[in-house]
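Tutorial, part two.
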Amino acid sequence: MQSKLVKITLARIGLLLFVPLWLSACQRGMAPVAFHADGRPAKLSDWHVVEVHDGKLELNQGVVPYDLNTPLFTDYAHKLRTIWMPKGVSAKYEPVDTLDFPVGTVISKTFYYPRPDKGRTGDGKFTDVARTDDYSHDFAGQGLDLSRVHLIETRILVHRKDGWAAIPYVWNDAQTEATLARTGAVLPLTLVAAADGAGVPAREDFNYVVPDESQCASCHAQDWIDRKVHPIGPKARHINKDYRYADGEQNQLEHLIQVGYLSGAPALDKIPRDANWADAKAPLDARARAYLDINCGHCHNPHGAANTTGLSLIYGTPEDHRLGICKPPTAAGQGTGDHFFDIVPGKPDDSIIPYRLSSTEPGTMMPEIGRSTVHREGVALIKAWIAALPGTCVVLH
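Running the prediction step on this input gives:
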């Protein structure tokens, strides 16, 4: 009798576990994820990675969301990142470089903004977007609640036999579909702050720039000689953090291992972890180095597009001349702001790096693409870090 009750109980548990999955699949109504081995599909929905259903941007089965300890700044946009792989394959752990993803991997990154309380213009188009770091109201399960957010673009990185391809898509005003934008796009938007204070304007007009395919390659090329595209974000140190999945919070690397998307990883305490740049409890040096790593290190590294500058801003660069401390620029010009060194310890206002981060002028601003506004909080962090650095630079005449 007891055995029979156990079987019945287990059967009920199995049914309860099955029903939510079945209902989820029906609600999504998506075809399986499509790996396109070549070409540029005209619509984002041709991939079946993320799609709009019932007022939500939903993730397909097997599409795993992830986040970064410190993300790249893109005009205060929020981002939903995902990974999908074919069955039977997994990424291989890399201690420093991007995880070694197998052919067939599809990575997506959707850029969006929360909607301000009064964000609709008279013509029915959304141009006002909220300037906020609060992500708590964005999500609906694992997807996005479109009553709260406005979708801007989704970028696809797909690993084909001949390498990675970057494919940009721009969402329509109706928020129903994103279409191929190989030549990029320029979208006039207005950042609306929750409150006007601490040097933050209540409203800030700017042009959100969707990069074209060649611009995608300029950032995603790990080696400037072969100029092959690679993912930037999914490095172990960037994604070694907890994520609030639909079924609970878990370390992202552990989750990838659990779902069969990652192999060869050591114990978590052996894996590096970038700091969260916005975590005031973390060491200032760790926060600043993480910020420079993700925002500047993809070009400023020994093999990147800016390798001729001799300036390396990737994680692990010693805090010396190579990091820019008392290092003169390789070329004079407007980008220096008439400053002598990339970093002058104790003197952020005399340093080139924060000067360029504070600019939106072509030929001066850094990064050169990917933003049209100044990340005030990020600049303040780098200035505070430089102000705390010991040492003195000597100007030789």
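Confidence is low (pLDDT under 50) at residues 1-27. In part three we will examine how such features are distributed along the chain.
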